[in-house]
Specification:
About 35% of the residues lie in helices and about 15% in strands. It has 4 helices and 8 strands, in the order ββαβββαββαβα.
Length: about 140
């Protein structure tokens, strides 16, 4: 954790895995405020990743877990979007799967701002721009999948 010249605390740490990056993003979001609550209150992760035993995986699938759904969901409408969805990748070596590309395209068609972000800085920068209303439907920024 570091403190900038205005006394604002933020998380800046290199992360090796996508899980580490995501934990850093959630910790960062706990320090950001939106309507009196931590931004992390509105930012969640669907339980759709990682290895699970067959019985548990089957149960989660019956409960609605779907492959390819983005890693982070920010449920705050901004700039004409219903919410923000981020598929998180590590800086080096992270590859977007076909089902993830398809899901991102569908979410964008349905009015979400859904993108792939590489690393902590890209993801938190995207969240900041989204929350500032800088990502408008009329001038949508396309991010490479």
């Amino acid at each position: 954790m570091v403190t900038d010249k205005d006394g604002k605390k933020s998380i800046v740490m290199p992360a090796k895995s996508e899980d580490d990056i995501q934990i850093s993003i959630i910790n960062w979001a706990k320090l950001q405020k939106y309507k009196g609550r931590p931004l992390a209150y509105y930012l969640s992760h669907p339980a759709n990743g990682g290895y699970r035993k067959d019985k548990e995986a089957a149960k989660l699938k019956r409960m609605g877990v779907q492959a390819g759904y983005p890693d982070l969901m920010l449920d705050i409408p901004k700039g004409g979007y219903h919410g923000l969805r981020i598929e998180l990748k590590k800086l080096k070596g992270g590859r977007t799967q076909d089902n993830q590309k398809e899901r991102i395209a569908v979410l964008n068609e349905e009015g979400y701002y859904a993108v792939v972000c590489k690393g902590f800085q890209d993801a938190t920068g995207t969240i900041k721009k989204y929350m500032a209303g800088e990502l408008l439907i009329t001038d949508k920024k396309e991010k490479a999948l």
